[in-house]
Write a structure and sequence with these properties.
Shape: globular
Largest sheet: 2 strands, antiparallel
Strand order of the largest sheet: 1-2
CATH topology of the largest domain: MetI-like fold
Number of domains: 2
Radius of gyration: 26 Å
Strand content: under 5%
CATH superfamily of the largest domain: MetI-like
Number of helices: 12
Order of helices and strands: HHHEEHHHHHHHHH
Length: 308
């Protein structure tokens, strides 16, 4: 005890660094938290149904009706949704609903990925351009912001019509809609990240006769990577939404957009299928974000991720 106290009181000795959990432990905690939240949500869903039916569709101890009827039409049981995945999607079609939805999800994800890549490149280039020229930022940034105030349901049909007149494949137009939702967060975070290095670090490189390109790629881009990957995670989910919405006016029948629209028509006879399609669409977005997170771990150093 005395030796440890002496070590603590010895002047000039740096304090020991706190032990950090391993990457495996951090991953296990994230998985455990995800599963715990999923269990809580499932319990809340089934608990709402149980209590609502017991209270005859009213809030307990009041005469107010529940906002959502707790019947099997509005809120199917979770096990019924899961069972619907392993039943034939249509009469006379031996394909399971899960097989059909996974095939549609793969088609939609490819469209979203193409738009994601294109929108990310455009967003990075705009952010780099704005970081170099304050005049261009002041002149063009209001239009970049205003572009995101236009409803997607208004933009999507126009892009589909323009693409048809240019004889584009419909999938290209859908990818362009995904890119429309992707470029904005990448532009904003790239601009912020490229301007994050301390001015003294920039001046130090310039004192060594570094060119603007060298300053960009050796200092600004590495400093901006945590900001950019934060935007890419947001854009990954947005690109999936853009692809699904874009498939509706395009007439594409192989993606999740058509599946969601079809099962919404037959909601009264089979609500489980619509909920199952929504669940698969959510999994596509989660998987896309997971891919971006893996890429971030490979590109961004661990200490930079902790700092952000």
């Amino acid at each position: 005890m005395a030796d440890s106290a002496a070590l603590e009181l010895e002047p000039g000795r740096p304090a020991p660094a706190p032990a950090r959990p391993s990457a495996l432990a951090q991953t296990a905690r994230k998985v455990l938290a995800f599963v715990l939240v999923l269990v809580v949500l499932a319990a809340a869903w089934e608990g709402y149904k149980l209590l609502g039916q017991a209270a005859h569709n009213r809030i307990p101890f009041t005469d107010l009706k529940l906002p959502v009827r707790p019947d099997d039409q509005s809120m199917p049981h979770l096990w019924d949704m899961a069972a619907a995945l392993f039943k034939p999607a249509q009469r006379g079609n031996p394909d399971l609903l899960l097989t059909l939805l996974l095939r549609s999800a793969w088609f939609t994800w490819r469209e979203a990925a193409a738009g994601f890549v294109f929108g990310s490149v455009v967003g990075f280039l705009l952010g780099a351009l704005f970081s170099r020229s304050t005049l261009l930022e002041r002149g063009l940034m209001p239009y970049v912001v205003a572009s995101q105030t236009v409803p997607l349901l208004a933009i999507a049909p126009m892009i589909i019509i323009w693409g048809g007149r240019l004889n584009w494949p419909a999938a290209w137009s859908v990818g362009l809609i995904s890119a429309y939702l992707t470029f904005f967060p990448v532009t904003i975070n790239t601009l912020r990240g490229l301007r994050s290095p301390h001015p003294s670090a920039v001046e130090l490189l310039r004192s060594y006769a570094a060119t603007e390109g060298e300053v960009l790629w050796k200092l600004r881009v590495p400093a901006a990577l945590p900001y950019i990957f934060t935007a890419l995670r947001v854009s990954a989910t947005a690109s999936v939404i853009g692809a699904i919405v874009g498939e509706l006016p395009s007439g594409i029948g192989d993606g999740l957009g058509r599946a969601l629209l079809t099962y919404s028509y037959y909601y009264s006879s089979g609500p489980q299928k619509l909920y199952a399609a929504i669940f698969v669409a959510a999994l596509v977005g989660l998987a896309f974000v997971a891919l971006v997170s893996v890429a971030e771990r490979l590109v961004v150093p661990a200490e930079r991720r902790r700092a952000e």
